[in-house]
Amino acid sequence: MKFKNFLFFVFFLIVLLIFGCNIGNVIDDDENNSNSTSSSIFSSSSSVSSTSSQSSSSNASMSANEYVADFRMAKESVLRSIPETYINWARQNLRIAYQHTSHGTHVSYGLFGLQDYKAGDSTLFGITNNNPTADKLDFHDYAVGGYGAGFSDLSTADANWNSFTDQVRLYLDDPVNASINIMMWSWCNIAGHNISGYLSAMGTLIGEYGPGGSKIGTEPGQTRTTPVTFIFMTGHANLNDNTGDGNPKNQAQLIIDYCNLNGYFCLDYYSIDTHDMDDNYWEDAGDNGDSASYNVWNGSSGTQYFYGDWQGLHSLGTDWYNNKSSPGGTVACGQHNDQHITANRKAYSMWWILARIAGWDGVSM
Fold it and tell me: What is the domain range of residue 325?
């Protein structure tokens, strides 16, 4: 009897072990299938997300809510992606005072020519100069030079930044200019100039005339009711002389860092001057798309022009347009240029900034 019980016990153990192993295999198979399914779901989700991201915006290299308009924004494809709601609001509501000398014409001549580029642009990018007109961008060129110390650009203003701020105050406090809500000054040659003085002066003006500024309102000591958005600028590139302390690349970085830190808009001349239409960076470039390094890469010798080459290979009226010295005026390249691409690109960047000021996030379509 005891032997039979022992055999039964052994048989029971064997059955239990076999059954347990089978259950374990089933459980392992189920877990493996479950993990495999989860991986497939995440992979599919990632693919969909990635595909969606690529197709949702042509501005994939840009992030929302950026402040510096550099070479990435200086493209017609970016300009055409801006929702018209923001372009329309900017055109109808922004009133711009712009002070500059020769290099600053890259912005103004580009803006003046853009409205004659393609069908619909005369409405969308309509602009006047010192002649406010309904439903056109109200632009005031060489606006501030006749006030105070009479500085003509930021390079001359470096002689005395306190006098610069006084000059701007006189302009903004003049009742004639009460509707101005955008101000921008350009540099001539930025090399060797006091960037900390520039940033400090602009910070002072923003504290006084920017939104919530001490001079905005109707209380005693407050001089206007319309706040002003100040647009910063970097300086143009200098052929074979962009790097090192006090030179355009380093000076530009100081301004860009300050603007990114504080959320201030900036038109980055240096970036646009040194990047070709395929986004290649030429550190030795000048203000006309001229670069010896570009020539070496291109199999040439001497100094050639990446913007001039691109213009020559593309079509007027389809890929680029003629800049103009005034709205509806004569055809003119930006000064110091013998091609139109530089000023085209700076106009595209300017409209990107204006749309951002109007409330656009910089990427949504």
Answer: 68-357
